[in-house]
């Protein structure tokens, strides 16, 4: 059997034990720290005594699609091409969701490991990610399984490698705006570990709870308490577990609870003229109820005759703007593909979000004060391993090092708490 597999210029050992990478959507480190302190994550609290509690930086923009694809390719968006949930395609003059596998410019790890004989299981909460994560895989029952909680009842053998996902998990298909959508992911992971014992498993949740509940709140602690039980089961099955996140989360509201928004398109319309510039919000996806398509990162397309430096200076002077970068500066700083971002990239401060114009955002679904992400302030994420790791000294870790750490640096044998 192949001992080393190279994907996207990174080499990985074939797993000696099942490897489970968990991307906990929106999970800034404080969520688990507070849940451990309150006694809501007893397995994690005990595991930290003999595992590895690390930190890493996620990809900016700190959104779901770029970071999940970075984790499963082992590379930043400059390589795999997915630089948002949503982007503007100048060639088509169209604003496009980045959930089409045709937009991928690099393979995930999964096809290469599948070709080397590995069993692969992928479960994601939202179906927007499922096609990207499963790209290049030929589904085969007991060999390759890839489905979403959102559409578990529609899973078929040819498309997903499984046709009884709901019956296997024993839960009804949850509402897309619920904690249960993520619980279904964990429950499926445990059942798949029992049924097929995959060599590589990737579990990706939704950040509905993190958008609604701050770290240490009862709503957050209940979610992490649920998660802890499933993680304990995966650990007991002998899996090498790596827990990370696609991004953090911060409060983005004023003292009165209303969203603190910079409506950038409106500002640019006043400065340049109506619709001369185009503001793109890459947080946009089909699930905007809990964030209103408001995040802390935007990219701006300008007319060819615009004075780019003058526009950048104008934006820098707006309240709540942390950084304005040219296309080239942003591509260098955030490792982004230059052809999929605008002439300018704008990042807001920690507690502010960027919108286009008020009439373009339906905020009726924001039943609690806004929490969101997208900027540099949401870049720090957990990187927790249920094994001791070695050979990482001096490295600046990224969330997309998760597979490298699990396969190349984690001890194959699980230490006991006494050790």
From TrEMBL:
Keyword Transport: no
Pfam families on file: Phosphodiest
InterPro entries in the cross-refs: Alkaline_phosphatase_core_sf, Phosphodiest/P_Trfase, Phosphonoacetate_hydro, Phosphonoacetate_hydro_insert
Enzyme's top EC category: hydrolase
UniProt-recorded Gene Ontology molecular function terms: phosphonoacetate hydrolase activity
Keywords: Hydrolase
EC number: 3.11.1.2
Name of the protein in question: Phosphonoacetate hydrolase
Organism annotation: Limibacillus halophilus
């Amino acid at each position: 059997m192949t001992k080393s597999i190279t994907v996207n210029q990174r080499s990985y050992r074939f797993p000696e034990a099942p490897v489970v990478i968990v991307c906990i959507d929106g999970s800034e480190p404080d969520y688990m720290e507070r849940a451990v302190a309150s006694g809501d994550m007893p397995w994690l609290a005990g595991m930290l005594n003999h595992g590895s509690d690390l930190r890493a930086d996620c990809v900016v923009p700190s959104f779901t699609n770029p970071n999940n694809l970075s984790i499963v390719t082992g590379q930043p968006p400059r390589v795999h091409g997915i630089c948002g949930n949503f982007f503007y395609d100048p060639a088509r003059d169209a604003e496009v969701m980045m959930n089409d596998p045709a937009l991928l410019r690099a393979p995930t790890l999964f096809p290469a490991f599948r070709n080397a004989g590995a069993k692969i299981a992928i479960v994601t909460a939202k179906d927007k990610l499922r096609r990207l994560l499963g790209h290049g895989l030929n589904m085969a029952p007991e060999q390759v399984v890839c489905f979403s909680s959102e559409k578990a009842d529609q899973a078929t053998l040819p498309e997903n490698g499984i046709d009884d996902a709901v019956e296997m998990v024993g839960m009804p298909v949850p509402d897309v705006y619920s904690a249960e959508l993520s619980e279904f992911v964990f429950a499926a992971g445990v059942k798949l570990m029992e049924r097929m014992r995959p060599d590589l498993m990737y579990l990706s949740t939704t950040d509905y709870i993190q958008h609604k509940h701050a770290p240490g709140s009862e709503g957050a602690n209940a979610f992490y308490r649920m998660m802890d039980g499933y993680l304990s089961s995966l650990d007991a099955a002998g899996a090498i577990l790596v827990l990370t996140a696609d991004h953090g989360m911060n409060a983005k509201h004023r003292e009165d609870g209303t969203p603190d928004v910079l409506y950038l398109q409106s500002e640019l319309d006043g400065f340049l003229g109506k619709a001369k510039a185009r503001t793109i919000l890459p947080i946009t996806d089909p699930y905007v109820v809990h964030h209103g398509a408001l995040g802390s990162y935007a990219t701006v397309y300008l007319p060819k005759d615009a004075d780019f430096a003058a526009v950048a200076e104008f934006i820098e002077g707006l309240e709540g703007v942390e950084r304005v970068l040219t296309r080239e500066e942003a591509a260098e700083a955030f490792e982004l593909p230059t052809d999929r971002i605008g002439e300018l990239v704008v990042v807001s401060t920690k507690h502010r979000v960027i919108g286009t114009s008020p009439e373009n955002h339906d905020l009726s679904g924001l039943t609690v004060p806004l929490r969101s992400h997208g900027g540099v302030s949401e870049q720090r994420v957990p990187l927790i391993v249920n094994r001791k790791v070695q050979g990482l000294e001096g490295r600046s870790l990224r969330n997309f090092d998760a597979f490298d750490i699990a396969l190349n640096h984690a001890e194959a044998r699980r230490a006991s708490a006494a050790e």
